[in-house]
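Cross-posting from the modeling subforum.

Setting up a comparison between two proteins and wanted a second pair of eyes on the formatting. Protein 1 (sequence, then structure tokens):
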Amino acid sequence: MKTLLLAATTATFLLSSTFANAVDVTLNVGDQAPSFVIQDDTGANWNSDKHFANKTVVVYFYPADMTGGCTKQACGFRDDLSKLEGENVEVVGVSGDSVRNHQLFKKAHDLNFTLLADPDGVAATAFGVPFTKGEKSITREIDGKEEVLTRGGTAKRWTFVVKNGKVVYKDDKVNAAEDSQKILAAIEGLKK
């Protein structure tokens, strides 16, 4: 009887610990930015600790390469990048797309900033961004050739600004077409 009681207690403890760790992260302004390592659009490892430590980084999550809203958002950051870099701000886009997809997306739209491949939702989960696992594919014509772009999962469209390792801005209701302009205003507000 004691063995059965001990086994039941242990099982209950283990299950409650498992579910407690499965609780979604909620990252708010003022919180420490999360640590993670994922691949950038060149296939190299991108370590958040190295980028977040002593500078300002815009981290924007988007659902998929080569789709309407995501392309508008990326092109907005492309067009405003010189202004952001003038404020010593780095921009990175993050989606569940592969390195190859990111390379095609950058080429098709002349994107001039880093895209991070997050097919397993590592970065999205670390930031508390909703992420749905599961492969999805779209077909697009790029340079006259039909390409199939398959992603490992889909993140919601959220944007963060990290300054010196801390989250200083969070938007979980992003308007794709206006995101870069909103970020420029937020960066200006951080100077005050």
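Protein 2 (same layout):
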Amino acid sequence: MNERSTPQALTGPVIRAECLGRTYSEGKLLTQVFDGLDLQVMRGETVAIVGASGAGKSTLLHLLGGLDVPTAGEVYVAGQRMSALSDGDRGRLRNKTLGFIYQFHHLLPEFTALENVMMPVLLSGQSVCSAQMRAQMLLEAVELGHRLNHKPSELSGGERQRAAVARALANSPDCVLGDEPTGNLDNRTASTVFELMLELNRAQRTSLVLVTHDRGLARCLDRVLELYQGGLRELTSAEV
């Protein structure tokens, strides 16, 4: 693991999974992805999830973020049991508490960088003025202050991913979930985007849970967990 100190004044887990299970059925064939998986992510903590292709890393991230429903066990986000919430309440909690960054930026092509980052703030019920101020501040923080009015097609790959980072932080989430967020970038740009995420983690105490195949990136986080045979195990520094 890295040498950074454990975040101080933790107020309990931002995300907690208990005895999580997920089974998929295709005809008569049942595939069990997880069985009794437990996980806690504390406020301000950074966690890498690694594992072989097909181990279920993205599935786990979707379950933690309330984008998929487990077949067993429970996920708690900010102390609330996701299965007890209606679809609407789950969506509102997700928009308020969690940010998402994917391998592909998923920016809406018809809107500018500024408008894309404003959207989560507007969906939370804040005014256009507040959303614009927040979005501009975040885009300046990711060094895109000069690209506010550019559409995704007018941005480079690294710029689009930095805009996606800004959008993920739009509502000051407790935790950001990243699914190979630097996977489509060249090494130099990937390093820049990753360092940016760590800087924002330190500045805002936003927890990070990143799925990655990059062990070098994983070593920079507080904990590295390997998804193996349906469960999670914490890796030592020598194993990463």
